[in-house]
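Re: weekly structure request thread

Next one in the queue (163 aa):
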Amino acid sequence: MAEVEVQPVSTSAEKEWNSVAGWLPESFRHAISPMLIGALFGAFWQSIVLPNMAYSYPSPVQGAFILALLFSPLMYKYLLPNNNGDLKEYALGLGILGLAYSFIWVSGWGAMFCGGYLSVLVWVWINTTWWQYELPSFRYGIWHAIGIDIGAFGGAVLAYIYL
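Done, posted below.
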């Protein structure tokens, strides 16, 4: 049997993008923070705004998108500190996907599937691939809108149960 020659692979510590130092700040900024913001907006809408409304629309997820559009300049400033792109592009990414999610949650058919389960699958896929790249503001807005959708749904459910 022939001996297999194994050669070590050199790694560059300063350019290693797949290290924890590379993906942890990006994943916190673009995955965890929008989800927590969505959870706060959804819980706020479920516990404070919705009981004072005559109808149950807009739902907590839709209310979270309304609040996200209102707070999009702050979200843009703190979640995109490099300011790649434009605030208008970022708000457009939030708004387009927020509008699509609002139609999905109002429709009744497949709202849990499209707004819940499918969003989680797409969000996991985006979180595992997009963090490696510098993206335009529009795509960051889309990424954050998916996180806000998931967080708002979870925050509204937890607020309904515990508050």
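The chain has one domain: 23-162. Residues 31 and 147 are 6 Å apart (CA to CA).
Next request, please.
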